[in-house]
Amino acid sequence: MAKPRQSAINFYPTPDRPIPKPILFGAAALALGAIAVIGTGRATGIGIAGTPTVETLAHRELALDERTDGSAALLDAHSREALITIVEGEGAFAIEALRNLQRNRLRKGIDDAAPFLLALKADGRLVLEDPRTPQQVELRAFGETNIQAFAALLDPTGEGGQ
After folding, report:
1. How far apart are CA 50 and CA 48, in angstroms?
2. In terms of C-beta distances under 8 Å and separation of at least 24 residues, what long-range contacts does 84-93 make, across chains too?
3. Neighbouring C-beta atoms of residue 155, cutoff 10 Å
4. Taking a C-beta distance cutoff of 8 angstroms, is the pair 39, 22 a contact?
5. For 51-104, what is each residue's pLDDT tens digit?
6. Is the pTM of the predicted complex or chain greater than 0.70?
7. Among candidates 119, 131, 8, 11, which has minimal Cα distance to 56?
8. What is the domain partition of the chain in residue ranges?
């Protein structure tokens, strides 16, 4: 009976067949090059994409009120007027968006008492911003219905609580 032949191809290094030094040097050069490019980009700002600064035309400060009975309300941060109220088990996009921003604050250990900002930008975008963190929610990404839900929260005068 013939012995099964062992494969001559090894896909991993062995003491007899180590990884060739040019491959190791190439991998090290690639890693160091990537670190250098990233470090240069962070230090100089070259190649780093950021959110452009656009003038705010109207805004309204909003707060989230989570109640003990499981309901929640979206409030005007100054007057404390309830703009949207939901009962436990329901979901409203506006409230869920603020809950996500609030969770982000909690993860970062930031006081969650500061209001959130609903802003209409000069370029027509409607953005939900957290002034305590750099986080923004671009509302057009969630469709026209959700944009209209937030647009209705801005004052009809266009002042938006400024």
Report:
1. 6
2. 84/153, 92/149, 93/142, 93/146, 93/149
3. 13
4. no
5. 678 888 999 998 888 888 878 888 888 898 888 887 766 667 777 888 888 888
6. no
7. 119
8. 56-151
